[in-house]
Each structure stands twice: as C-alpha cells, then as structure tokens.
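Sat 14:20. Reprocessing the chain from the morning session after the first attempt stalled halfway. Input below, unchanged.
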Amino acid sequence: MIAIINKTLLNKIYKEIKKYENIVIARHVGPDPDAIASQIALRDSILLTFPNKKVWAVGTSVSKFKSYGNLNKINCEEINDALLIVVDVPNMARIDGIENLKYKAIVKIDHHPKEDIDALIEWVDTEKSSTCQMVTELILNTKLKLNTKIAENLFLGIVSDSERFSLKNTTAETFDTVSALIKISHIDFTSLYDILYTRPFSEHKFIAYITNNMVIDEHKLGYIKINDYILKEYNVDTSTPSNLINGYNFIDELLVWIFITEDVKNNQYKISIRSRGPVINEIASHYNGGGHKFACGARLTTMEEVDNLIADLQKACIEYENN
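Finished this time. Tokens:
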C-alpha cells in the first residue's frame, strides 16, 4: 500500500468505526463533489466491511450529485449512542443534517484549517488535495473494504477538489494515492470525467452570462451578484455558481473573485470566493464562512454584509499588490 506517515491515527479511526453499531456521517452545507463523494464512499465502505452496522450519510440532497449515490433520510432523535463522523467540514455551524442527533463521540476527517469542532479523534491535514484523498488513504491502509463504485466516487472527489490536479494542494502523494486506487479497483477513470464536466447548453449560456457581467476593478478583484431571476432565466440552481467558480482560475486579470448568489428559499446569499494570491479564508471567517486559504465560502443575509465583504476582499488585493 502507499506510505502513510501516521498509520497509527488511521488505525485509531478504524477501531472507533468498528466499535460503534450506529454511525452517522455528515459534511458541510452546500456540498461540492468532494464533500458528497467522501461522505457516501466512507458510508458504503463501512457497510461493505461491516454489513450488520447501521450507517447513515445525512444532509440535504443535491440533484446534480445523484449519480454518486443516495443520502439517507433519518430522524436524528431516534438514533442513540451514535458515532458522528464529520468529513470535509471545519466548524460545527456548517455541518448539515445532524440537528438533535444524540452522538457519543466525533471523528473528524478534513483538509480545511482547524476550527471549532471538538473531536475525539481528529485527522486534519491542509496539505491533502481533498477529503476524498484522505478517505482513500484510510481505506487502503486499514481493513475497510473497497468496490468499484466506492473507488469511482473517491476518484471523482479527488479530481474535482484538485481541479484536475492543477491546484497547489496537489502533491506527489496525491498521485501515489490515485495510482494505488486505480490499480486496486481497476476503474475506468477516463470515463468518469464526463460526470464532472459534461453540462447542459443552458449552463454554458450561464457561464457566458457570468463572464460578460462580472465586475473587475483595477486591483484584480472580480465579483458578480446573481439574482434569483437570473438563475430562473438560465434554468440553473443556487449551487451552480459555486460549481463553476474554479473555471475562472486562470484569468490574468483576476486575483480574487467572488460569486454572490441569491438563495430565495433560505433567505440568504451564498458566497463563493477564490484567490490566486491573497489569503481569503480569514476574511470569510468574519462573515459566517471559512474554508481554505485560497478557496472558501460564506452565507450572508443582507446586501450590506455582501458589500462589506467585497470591500474587505478589495483591501486584501491592495495589500497583496503593495507587498
């Protein structure tokens, strides 16, 4: 198997999984492929290894990720003495689907900077490309089992969160992990790219709308405010902008860019932010958000907060340019 520096930690996680009969696996609100894939893959691996356990992957379903597998609808009040495994989420406020859950302990697997989750066992590594990379390493280095579907989900999460292995968190270890996954599972990995990158024509029209209407200032800060009527006009949902934002990674005139999407159903604005230099997660943390240094998000309730966030990001661009 691939070399893992802290195999003792992985064995501790495995023993904790083995110990509990009831296991709930949760991730962050507004999930991306890495969050959904790591959650479902870990659930399915545990069930494959321990068929008699009750394991639930919880949270709001997202239709565009239905090919990854179904999430579980549960009444948290009816589950007792559960192990809660949180993946791809750094803080309690952003965990989706665990209201009123009676859990005895938390195991945390995440590649975001540490925040406020108090876990019994915590595996946090910001150098990893994705949480799916971490779950892959956990499976390959313990007695957890793997099948083709699990391997496909893990591959999709790694590819998505590394933006096809182009981001700075892609390392030699990332390629070692993916290579081992492919060799063991024999997945047809090239065909999986269709799941991530094939889009309806309406979505390509929406990309053109974003490109044509993004405001870019003299400090290379770009932003766009996407109202609900625009989403309806292009037949896309509130999660679509956040799934498209990485497509602007290699535009010379952009240093930091932010997508602000009106979410009428939840009476809020969904914020996605990316950077090619300034650290942005510390700024996002002041606006009910967080994430990686160069990729993060937030959820705001007023346009005043949105404008204040834009102003703070502009200051970050100016300071970055000056330094």
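The mean pLDDT is 94.
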